[in-house]
């Protein structure tokens, strides 16, 4: 793993720690002012800009305060000189034993020698009904 990949891994780990702690400042810390995020709940056309991204977190923090988990299970990072992406599986739910796997994809750009998140995508797998 190269230096950029290690920096990005730490950035995402710090972000997840901030999410668990309900620390909005920490969640926003490494995000671009032009962030685009596609999330599990609406709006389905995405959240665009740091103000809109900031606005979605209080509701999640309130839900999480009821005992939900938010833990990175696996994380893969690929980095080039100025663009990178990462994907992860996280345990996210109100019962640690049965928390669903949240899929996370992050796109980053290097600006002024610092990595910033420019795209974030969260999703849960859609269960396929059993054929009967």
From TrEMBL:
Signal peptide region: none
Residues annotated as domain SnoaL-like: 8-126
A Pfam family per the record: SnoaL_3
InterPro entries, per the entry: NTF2-like_dom_sf (IPR032710), SnoaL-like (IPR037401)
Gene3D superfamilies (UniProt xref): 3.10.450.50
Record's protein name: SnoaL-like domain-containing protein
Organism annotation: Nonomuraea longicatena
């Amino acid at each position: 793993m190269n230096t950029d990949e290690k920096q990005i891994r730490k950035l995402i780990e710090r972000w997840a720690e901030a999410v668990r702690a309900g620390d909005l400042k920490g969640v926003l810390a490494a995000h671009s002012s032009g962030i685009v995020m596609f999330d599990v709940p609406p709006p389905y056309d995405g959240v665009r800009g740091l103000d809109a991204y900031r606005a979605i977190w209080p509701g999640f923090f309130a839900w999480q305060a009821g005992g939900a988990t938010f833990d990175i299970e696996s994380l893969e990072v690929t980095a080039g000189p100025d663009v990178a992406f990462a994907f992860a599986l996280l345990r996210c739910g109100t019962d640690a034993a049965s928390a669903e796997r949240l899929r996370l994809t992050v796109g980053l750009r290097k600006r002024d020698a610092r990595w910033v998140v420019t795209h974030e995508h969260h999703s849960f797998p859609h269960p396929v009904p059993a054929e009967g």
